[in-house]
Amino acid sequence: MSTISEIEDSYTKDEIPKFNIGDTVDVHIKIKEGDRERIQIFTGTVIGRKGSKTRETFMVRRVVAGEGVERVFPLHSPVIDKIIVRRRGKVRRAKLYYLRERVGKAVKVKELIEDMSGKKKSRVKKRGRRAKSLKAAAANVEQKKLAETTSDENDVEEKVAASED
């Protein structure tokens, strides 16, 4: 092992959560104001990652008061207190620079959901599909209620017939 890689390894952080492009993260940043230190949280979508080892950086984008704000963070910087992954995103790009031109709900990235078996699937929010499934579920409930009432009426008729005999 070369001396440069030994020095780099001494500066790398051990506990870094796994996050990818498209994930929504909270970056806790240490800010020093005079003699006191506080932590500020920068929440946004990861739109890019580059570099390796101690030189690795990631770019986070958020919209504040209608204005897009992008910030590049060195991954192993001592200024970063911790990184919390709020939401996993499903994307098919290495860089999400196209989000810069988008406004409003178009900026949102699909959410990646892992079920109990570990399989990954994306949550699709489509109004038409959901509305159809709700109508189908309501129709099934109505059919079950109808079937229960008719079976109850049949039971009553059988009991009446048995009591008459």
Q: Could you characterize the architecture of this molecule?
A:
With 165 residues, this protein is an alpha+beta fold. It has helices at residues 3-11, 127-164, and strands at 24-33, 36-50, 57-64, 67-74, 80-87, 111-114, 120-123. The chain folds into 2 domains: 3-123, Roll (SH3 type barrels); 126-165. It contains 2 helices and 7 strands, in the order αβββββββα. The strands form 2 sheets. A 5-stranded antiparallel sheet has the order 4-3-2-1-5, with no helix packed on it. Strands 6-7 form a two-stranded antiparallel ribbon. A hairpin with a 6-residue loop joins strand 2 and strand 3 (57-64). The radius of gyration is 28 Å and the shape is elongated. The termini are far apart.
